[in-house]
Amino acid sequence: MRKPEVPSRGWRSVRPYVLLFFLLSAVYHSNLRPIASGDSLPGSLVPFSVWLDGSLRLDRFGPYIHDHVWYGWAVVHQSGGHWYSAYPIAGPVLVAPLYLPAAFVPALRRQSPATLISIARIAEKFAAVALAAATAVALLFLLRRLAARRAAWILTLVFALGTGNWSTSSQALWQHTFDGLAIVGWLYAIERLGDAAAGDRWYWLAGMCAAAALVIRPTNGLLLPALGLVLWMRREHVARYVRAFLLPALAASAFAAYNLAVFGHITGGYHRVPLNGHPVEGLLGLLLSPGRGLLIYTPAAIFAWAACAPRARESRMQHRPVVAASVAFIVLHFAFFAVFPDWWGGYCWGPRLLTEILPPLMVLIAVGMPAIRGRPLRSAFACLALFGCLVQALGVYCYPKGRWDQLPVSVDSAPARLWNWADNPLIRTARAGIAWEPYAILAAGVTGGPPAAARKLQQLGINPY
Known about the structure:
mainly alpha
């Protein structure tokens, strides 16, 4: 078995990562539009509130959203005479430095809420692309420790172009977009726990990444029992448990305090969601349904089994902590969302709610590469990976054309549609064709300037909200 390569230092070693970042950024921008959602609207506005108003509140936008955006009641919350995002704000706050140029454009403060929302929707795509590309680069850095160089690059490209990192994370500021880097950092820190020369640095980093992921998206609290399992397997002393869990405890306390102050409940806007779904139905839907199944939209994920194969035993034992953490988090994540009543994740492309387990799946495939030998298995992996890339491209360049989520009846009202093999998102969206409108708007702008682009936007009836 070829030994995994530990990345060297210096510009020569950094250059491939920089080039990958810009290459992926170009690909992620190539559809010339954000594929935004109502869920991501508050996240796109919080950074503007930070720089334009010096506040985490959405007082500048809240009244307008409530009065003019049909789903406004679900995404903004009024409390004590102020307006807040109905979703956790840690992700938008952490990404706010990317919006620093907004603070140096005085004219922005004078714009109407409608205009600023339109600008925010455009800026949202740039921030999402930067985060998604950075997540893929960070994953490559991790995979280089787990597999040979060629395998690490291939798996990174599969993650970048054949999973929801392309069709979901890079297209809008979902919570999944914010937490990808934190989860990859958590996995990297666990992989480095055995480095004696680093002392306790990696225990702190594992805790810091878990804390960031938790406040970005509360379901990432499932990282903590997985981290606890790793520490137990390593028979660590109590002091290292403290180092690993101190920051998550502080972050959870701050998160709960904010939610109590704004929502009157420690879980914030999520306290009304009962976990009363049917576990078998949810699990099968998350894995196999043509509407949201992981093995339909990212079929290469099935090769995660390779980490448990006898041929991968040496690799598995060498990287035992990160394998255990990955398996534990994946299992807990599936168990949670299998009983989540809306396991399909509303209006979206593919298994959006499984976005967080994509990096751990890539880790398991990397560790299992010694078992994926011979032409049949390698050919099967290549075919499934390429099919996954085509499926994600369909979501990027065509979705939501076909309006499968809405027609003939909302999937939220009729979830049985998720099992319709004759009329599913893949077939309907492919038949609807490419969303050409962004290219028409760009062409109008190039030939006639911004006014012509604005007119084309109105002619096409595109609503930025």
